[in-house]
Amino acid sequence: MSKIWESIKRSYVFIILGFVYIPLVVGAIFTFNKSSDKGTYLTSWSKFTFNNWTTIFNSGRDIALINSIILAVLTSIIVITISLISVYAVYRSKSRVLRSSLSVTSNIPLINPDNITAIGLVLVFTLFFGVISSDDEGFFRVVIGHAVMTLPYAIFLMYPRSEKFNNNLFEASMDLGYSKIRSWFKTYFIYMIPSIIMTSVVCCVFSFDDFIITRTTSNTPTLGLKLYEGQFEAWALCFGVIALIIVIFGNAIYIGIKNKHIKRSKKTWLKKIIIKNKQKGNFENTVELNLRGGEMDV
Length: 298
Hints:
mainly alpha, 13 helices, transmembrane helix, globular
């Protein structure tokens, strides 16, 4: 019984990964499934074809992809700038009231329904800019709408890391003769890069996937609108496979860079130990280091 329980515990992670990735693999396979004569996507295997991939940019989906990319970039820039300044201002103020206010006001939009947010944005845009015409895409409106939608998520991601920043680094940079702005970029901005990357990913996901706010506030065609209009078509699976490949390669690159950084840090640490023990004169008696294998025997 104990052996069975041990095998279950060891295979638990692989079972969870199987539940996650098996549908993705099946979806990738079905991108090569031929649709019906009416263009309807078939959930049962029909015939192998590349037609779904060759027609992926038909019916205005190329314009929708370009709009989604531009929307993701602009939204990321706006949201990252505002949220970065906001969390740094809270960090510098050290005010409990301001911190509580930021937490409460940023958490409320996270649980607020998107349709309520969309209606509120429409009312605001109508008040300041008037009713959007049918021949106007209203790209500016959808950028502002997506910025409002993703800003709470950005603050939620950046705030915890910002609170752990060591302000001594900023002061030390200024003592070295750098200006406040340059010191801020060399210390705080560099420190916040992981949160900035995650925020940009969230903005990109929302820009490509959102339907309610995009459709309600503007007439801009995006992949999110193309995905939810009419019946489901196989091109959506093709875009999903492309996104999956990007995620896999992105994770592989991240893991490779992280492992390289760990090895470099380990070698630096070993060299420091060697130098320190040589200075003490007891290197041969106390520490034996194998620099090739990166092992230390005491």
